[in-house]
Amino acid sequence: MIPRLRPTVTIALPTAGFFERLVEAGFEGDIETSAASRTVFSTDNSIYQVEPTGILFPRGVEDLRVTAGVLSEPAFRGITVAPRGGGTGTNGQSLTSGVVVDCSRHMNSILEIDPVRRVARVQAGVIKDQLNLALKPYGLFFAPELSTSNRATIGGMVSTDACGQGSCLYGKTSNHVLGLRIVLTDGSEWWSRPLVPEALDEIVARQDRIGEIHRTVERIAREKHDRIAEIFPKLNRYMTGYDLAHILRGDGGFDLNAILCGSEGTLAMIAEAELNLLPIPAHAALINIRYGDFNTALEDARSLVALNVASVETVDEKVLDLAKGDIVWTGIARFFPDDAGGTTNGINIAEVLADDEAELERKLAEVTTALATGANARHAGYTIARGHADVEAIWSMRKRAVGLLGNVDGPVRPVAFVEDTAVPPENLAPYISEFRALLDGAGLAYGMFGHVDAGVLHVRPALDLTRDDHIGLVREVSDAVVALTRKYGGVLWGEHGKGVRSEYVPEFFGDLYPSLQEIKRAFDPENRLNPGKIATPSGQALTKIDDVPLRGDIDRIIGNEVRSAFDNAAYCNGNGACFDFDETSPMCPSYKATRDRRFSPKGRAALMREWLRLLAEKGVDPRQETKRLRRSGPLASLARRAFNSLNPANRDDFSHEVRAAMDTCLACKACAGQCPVKVSVPAFRSKFLELYYGRYLRPLKDPLVAAIETTLPLVRRIRPAYNLIVGTRAGRTMMRVAGLTSLPRLPQISLAKEAARLGVPLATPQTIEALSPGERQRSVVFVADAFTAYFDPDVALAAIRLARKMGLTPFLAASHVNGKALHVHGYLHRFEAAAGRTARYLQRLDETGVALVGLDPSMTLAFRSEYKGMLKATILLPQEWLTANLDRLTALSSTADGKSFRLMAHCTERTNAPASITQWKTVFESLGIDLQAAQTGCCGMAGTFGHEAHNRPISERLYAMSWKREVDASGDADILMATGYSCRSQVKEIDNKRLPHPFQVIDKIMSENAGIPQSDVA
Question: Is the pTM of this model over 0.85?
C-alpha cells in the first residue's frame, strides 16, 4: 500500500561513499540520510520544497573542517552543501538538493560571557533567546530583535543579517558582530575581525585563500567606492548579502564581516561568533494606539517616529483579528479594548525606553500629549502597558503575527514571497497604498504589519499553489512588487534575506553585480556553497523564483479534501514556532528532549504530508482505506497484520519512519494550542496510527493501555496482587517485558466506597431531573476520570467536601470511559463507540442544567477536542467552576499566612485553556492568597507516555529540565500544587513526593478557617 520513499525532486549528485568517507576522516557528529530526515529538511518557511541528499550535524569546528576536507577530494567535487540554522527562512535560503550542514543540534554552547567588555562568544547553533536568558543576570542582552527569536540560531542570524522590531535603535545583526570563526571549502579556518590598515596589509600579502579573499574584497571596496555609494539605498534595512557599503569603516579600518553577514551560507560555514552586548533598558512601556483606518495608522506612525520613541510597529485588522483567537490574547486583551460604535482596523505600538521611572513618565507624557492635539488626534483611543512582563506579552503577539496569517481555513492561505519589502519611511504610506491596490487588483486577500519606523512592510498574499492560475501569480506579483519598490527607492528584501529571490540581484546591483561574482569566486571558486543564491561565478545562472519545486506540487497530488481531513498537517507553513528552545515552555517537549526536528510538530507534519503523497500516488484514499480495514473481521485482521509485519518486502515502508516519529509524541496538545496555524499532531497521529496498525501488528503494551479504563474496576478487586506486581522487582521486570514501566500503586481507599459512606449519590439523568430547578442550581456533578478515581481518589473526595462547604450538593458521575488512551493510540473505531456512549450520558446530564466539573485537565479537555461534534455540553475545569462560584468562597478568611503557594499546571491546560492560570489566581486571591504560577515545561509523563518503557528516558529527561528544579526548590513552608494526575504521578515516581491538587489545598484551607478538623469533614 505504501511504497518506499521516492525523492520529491530528482537528485543526481555523486554522493556515493561521501558519508562513509566523512566517518573515515574523523567526522564525529551525526549523519542522517533516512527518507524521514530528508523529507523534514526539504522545506523551510517558504513556498518551496527541495529534498537534500543528507544532513550533517557537526559537533564542533573540527567537524566543519573535516567536511570541507572531504569535499575537496576529487571524488566528491560535484557535491554542494548548504548551512542551515533554525530552518525558518521565508525564501528557501537553506534549501538544497545537496548536503545540509545543521549546527543547531550540537554546536549550541555559549562559550564565554565577558560582562566587563560586554562581549559573548557563542557557537553558531546557539538560539538568540537562549543567549539572552544567559545574559540577563549580567543586565545585558544581544540586541537585534526578530519574531523567531526563540528558535533563530546566531549562525542563521548572521547569515541573513537578521533584524526586526527596534532596528532603528539597535540596528542589524552585523552592527553587533565583532568576530566570526569561519571554515572555507578548502578547509581553511579563519577568525574574521575588523582590521587596521597595517594588519590588513599583512593578510593581503598571504598567498593562500585567505589572502586572495582579502585582496579581492579590499580592491572592490576601494575601486568601486563611489559607485557603491550611488547604488546602495540610504535605508535602515539596506540590501542584505555582500554588503559592499560597510567594508571600509569610518576609522579607516577594514571589516570582512560586512561581507559575511547576510551571505546566506554562500561564502563560508560559520562556526562561532563574537558578539557585542548592550545593557538591558531599565524601564519600558508601550503605547497601544487604535485606529478605525489602517492608512491613518500608517500616516500617524511617522509622527510617532518624530517623537523619538524607540520603535513603532503597525498591525492591520486582519492580523489583529487572528491574534484575538490566539493563545497570547488572554494576557493582553485589556490593552486592546473594543471601541464603542467602531471597529479597530489598525494599531500602532510605540515603544518608550528609559533609564529611570521619572524619565519614562516624562517621555510617555510627551507622546500622549501629542496624541491628544492637532493632526495627531485621529486615533480611536490608546492604552499604556508598563513593565517588562506586559511589554513582552504584547511583543509576543506581534512576533506571532507572521505565523498567525496562516491560521485560516481552506486551501487559499497567505504565503511568503514578497513579504519584507523596505522603502524610505517617508515613502511608506503611498507605497503601501499602491501595494494594496496591486493585490486588490489581483483579487488577493492579505494581511499587513510592519516596522514602519524602518519603512519595512510584511505582507503575505493568500494563494493556493495547487492551482495553475495562482502559481502564475507568484511571478506576476513578484515582478510588480520589484518595480514598485524601485519606484519608491526601496528593495524587495528588507529583512528576510534573498534566497531564491536572488534572481533579482543583478537588476538591483547593476554594474556592481560582477563585483559580487568576484567575491563569490574568491571565497568559493567551485561554487560549492549554497549555489544559485546571491551571486554565482560568470556563466552560471542564479536560481529563478519559478524554477524551484513548489510545496504546491506535492499538495496537488494529495488533493484538498485529504489535506483538510488531517488536522492541518499539510498546512504547516514552516514557521517553526515548535522549535522553541525554552525549557519552561510547554511547546513540543519531545523536540526539546531530543533536538531532533523529526520529533517536532513541523517535522511530523512534513512526514505526514509525504505519507499522504505516497498514498495518493498509489491511488489510496486514507479515509476510505480506514473504513475498509475497519470492516474486516478480527481473524482476517490479525492474519493480514501478521503477514505484513513478517513480510521482508515491507521492511522499507516509509510509514515505519512516520510511526517512529509519532512514537515520541506525548500527545500533550501544546502544538494544537500554541502553533499559530493550529497544527494538531495528536489528532492526525491517531488517524495515522489507526491505519498503520490496520496493516501491522501492535506492540503488546498497546492493548494493555487501551483497555485500562475498562479493566481498572477489575484490577481494583485484586488490588494486593496488582500492587505486588508493580511494587516488586520481579513484577516490574515482567511489566517491562510487556513494554510498561513506572506504574503507580492502587491506594487502599476506594472512591466508590467513600462516596457511598459520605452519602454522595451517583448522577443519573433521573436523579438530577427529580430535583427542583433551585436544587439543580445548587448541585454539582464531579466527572471523575478513571485515573484520578482509582489512583488518586483523595482529589475527588476533596472536591466533594469543598462543594459541601460552599453550600452545594455534590454528585459523582457514573463510571464511564473517557477514551483518551484509545484515541492517543489510534483505536479510533473503539474510541468513537465508547465516546458516543459517554457523550450521550453527559449530554443528558447537561440538559438538566446541573454543573458538570472534571477533575483532571487533560481528560476534561478531551471532551472539548476529541469529543468535538459528539458532545455539546461543556465539562468545566475546576478553576472555571470555582471562578463562577467565587461568592461562595470570598466570605472565608485565609489562615495561610507565611506560606508560599505555587501552582504547576498541566501543559494541555496551559496551552488549550489559556485563561486557566489567571482563573486559578483569581480563585486563590478570593481566599486571600497570592498564588504564583511556576514556569515549567512538560513533566514528561503526559498520560500513558511516561509509563511506556521505550519512552522512559525521554520522560525523565523532560522532568529534569524544569519540574525537578521546581520540586527540589520547594521547602517546608511552600505549598506546591499540580493540577494534572500524570504530573503528580511523575513527581511521586521520581522524587517520591506527593503534590496536592488545588482542590485538596482549598478544602484544607476552608476547613482550617472554619475550625473543622480534616478528619471530621464529611
Answer: yes
- The architecture (CATH level 2) of 110-279 comes to 2-Layer Sandwich (3.30)
**Domain locations in the chain as residue ranges:** 18-105, 110-279, 282-404, 559-697, 751-1016
Q: Rounded to whole angstroms, what are the CA distances from 970 to 12, 903, 989?
A: 59, 11, 17
Residue at grid coordinates 494493555: 704
Rounded to whole angstroms, the Cα distance separating 939 from 397 reads: 26
Topology of domain 282-404, CATH: Alpha-Beta Plaits (3.30.70)
Q: Which pairing describes strands 900-904 and 119-123: parallel, antiparallel, or unpaired?
A: unpaired
The CA-based angle 418-423-424, given to 5 degrees, is 165
Mean pLDDT by 10 residues, the chain (1018 residues): 42 72 97 96 96 97 97 93 93 95 97 98 97 96 90 95 84 94 96 96 95 97 93 76 90 93 96 97 92 84 84 85 81 85 82 92 91 77 90 85 75 91 89 92 88 85 94 96 94 90 93 95 96 89 93 94 91 90 92 95 96 95 95 93 95 96 95 88 96 96 95 95 93 93 95 95 94 95 97 97 96 96 97 97 96 97 95 96 91 64 94 92 93 94 94 96 93 89 96 96 83 48
**Residues in CB range of 765: below 8 A, 6 or more apart:** 841, 844, 845, 847, 848
CA distance 140 to 133: 9
| Those residues with Cβ within 8 angstroms of residue 651's Cβ, 6 or more apart along the chain or in another chain | none
Strand partners, 449: 315, 458
The sign of the dihedral angle between the CA atoms of 650, 654, 655, 657 is: positive
DSSP H helix total and E strand total for the chain: 48, 27
Question: Residue 382 in contact with residue 368, Cβ under 8 Å?
Answer: yes
What kind of architecture, by CATH, is found in domain 18-105? 2-Layer Sandwich (3.30)
Contact yes or no for 546/473 (Cβ under 8 A): no
Residue 312 β-bridge partners: 350
Amino acid at 600: S
Rounded to an integer, what distance in angstroms lies between the CA atom of residue 153 and that of residue 174? 14
Q: Under a CB-based contact definition with an 8 Å cutoff, are residues 301 and 426 in contact?
A: no
